[in-house]
Amino acid sequence: METEQVASEDEPPSMLWGLDPVFSAFARLYIKDILLMRESHQVPGIYFYKTHPIFQVDILGIVVFKREREDFYSYGVDDGTGVINCLCWKSDKWKEQDEQPKGGRVASSSSVAGPSGGFNIEEQLRRLQEAQREISALDIGDLLRVRGSVKTSRGQREIMSSTFYKVSDPVMAVQISWMQELPVLYRRCYHKPFNPASGEPGTSSTTAAGQPSFSPLLGRATQTLRDFLREKEVRRFRPYDVEHLLHPLVAQLPLHTEGEQSEMQQASTVLLLRKHTNHIFSCYHILTYTLNLCNYLLTKVAFHCAPHSSVPMVNLVTCKICTMLFSLRENEKLCNHIFYKIWHIDTQGPLDRMKSICACVCVCVCVCVRVRAHWCLYTVLAVLALSKRKGTCWLGLSLKLQSIQSTHHLETTLEKVQI
Amino acid sequence: MYVRMLPATAVYHFPWEFQSRAIAEGTSVRTFGRLTCYLPEESKAFLTSHHVSVKYQVSVQTSYVEPFNPILGALYIVLGETENTEEGGVMLRARVMNCVDGVDLALLQKAINDQRSFFQKSA
Questions:
Q1: Does the ipTM surpass 0.90?
Q2: pLDDT band at residue A353, thresholds of 50, 70 and 90?
Q3: Angle, vertex CA A279, rays to CA A275 and CA A284, nearest 5
Q4: A176 touches chain B (CB under 8 A)
Q5: Of the candidates B96, B100, B122, which has its C-beta nearest A171's C-beta?
Q6: Contacts of B123 in chain A (CB under 8 A)
Q7: Tens-digit pLDDT profile for residues A4-44
Q8: Span A2-92+137-190 CATH architecture
């Protein structure tokens, strides 16, 4: 009894955990902190860093220990603050590749040497897989990035990876930026208390950096939704179902720039509504760094598309991209889904160019978050086929995209695409 | 019995912090320096660095990381355990030795210092 009482004192009730944006994100914590986090009394498998419920983490460190098992590798990862064991599963594709006879490779490599205009999708896919295999085989001394859930087995903390890859970091740029980023993240998010009892749960950490004017409204939106859900005893819902509840709030939304304001007047109210409700939901779900990425993409897309198509369309597309992006974090295979969505927004005007750009942006993003590379390839191919553009250069580009790891690269790539 | 053999955490130390045997023997550390000399027959390497116009040298036992490609004049990151030598100095027994030539040293130092001060503040 006593322990339960203690639990209820330190931990917010599990029902409210979802309100903490940190909960649904991969928390970038120091390994030291992952090792020291205390396990929740209410739900085993959930951990608490300060007041934040955490079950999945994102780490970067040097492999200092390696052990191979039949199905997985166990890597000891050292980030300079602690060492933790990571279980990294061998993928099925990886095994299939090993069994393939060598003859097949020789034959396909000759087709690479063929005319540069020709494009052999099998060959490209094989290359992608090979690249993928390369980044999933590590040795002691390599830099490893792991996303996964925290487990405790036989008294030892470990990470069950959902994604992992070898990071190529010859001049330590990634490691240094990681070292500089973490204290900021800690200060902005993890050290900020999560207090679901107050009027604006968890919003302070998400919105403080991005859009200060937004937070009171978000708090009210939350309250509205929460009241509704409690009243009707709703257990599951889609954002779409509760959209209408937020309609009265939309009128009070601050518009970001003057330019946008004038454009907005032309746009239909439905579009406006969509955009803002999506906005509300998105703000609700994400952590600062994802927010930044999305804002960045939004401006990019808007910038590139503006001269070529109507404004409402652009807005719609961007908000689609944004919302899709969030689900992407949950499920990497949604990449194709995104493209599908964008493709069907359509119906007015010459949108080929815009669509292509959007798809390209999506691909870039997917690569950034390490979606399976061949999904991206399919997407690009589809775009090319449909937009009737001579796109061999794009293709080459998209293949190179595997190595993209920062928004800076993304930007330069996008510029190239413009040519 | 399945025993986990995870090594101890290698915390960043600056090369100029090794001189006075202030670090206990056997501590896991990571540090950096320019490879100025490599003696393959003794498995010994020397990493030098400059700090406030004083030259510091760290000797590294490389038998665990051999064979590696020694590039004289290139910057290396080393992870390993400290050992006191008979001559009264400190030697590093390397577990990991990566060439990181081209690294922005000033930025790395800043990042290390930032991290340290962050831990001091939050402690």
A1: yes
A2: low
A3: 160
A4: yes
A5: B100
A6: none
A7: 444 445 677 777 787 788 888 899 999 999 999 988 888 88
A8: Beta Barrel (2.40)
